[in-house]
What we know:
Layout: E1 24-26, E2 33-35, E3 42-47, H1 58-76, E4 80-87, H2 92-101, H3 105-122, E5 130-133, H4 134-150, E6 154-157, E7 160-163, H5 165-168
Parallel strand pairs: 3-4, 4-5
Antiparallel strand pairs: 1-2, 6-7
Amino acid sequence: MRSWPSPDVPDLSAVGLGRGQPPRVPDTASGGLVEIDGLDGVVRIYVCGITPYDATHLGHAATYLLFDVIQRVCRDAGLDVRYVQNVTDVDDPLLQRAQATGQDWVALAERETQLFREDMTALRVLAPDHYIGAVEAIPGIVEMITTLRDRGAAYELDGDIYFSVVAASL
């Protein structure tokens, strides 16, 4: 899935303004602030994207603007950022809206995703490095579930497959 074009972001250190400090964010476990410095200098960000059954709104914008600021501050501090965002382009709200309006759910998802891209472009939000739709990720998800089951890290119950929390601690 394609995202949107990222705006140009000037490198302030290249014009003699130096580097900023890595951002510090609240840590609910300690009650203090922790510095985001990434693993080996790479900050990895995953943000749950939209379910494209209707137009985006200010609440959506607030989420993506927050992570845009975090990205920009990290980059200004000289950190590399790897940013991934998904689009839940198959989900009950989307299917219900398509049925209620008599639209094809794939066309509805694409139209609303395109509107979201346009909104993000207008807000000059940095695009993710990887913008992944749920539909396109399904083959990989099925493969991973199969691998987890084969390794005994997932189990079936009443026709559904669950990850084994016990297996995660091994």
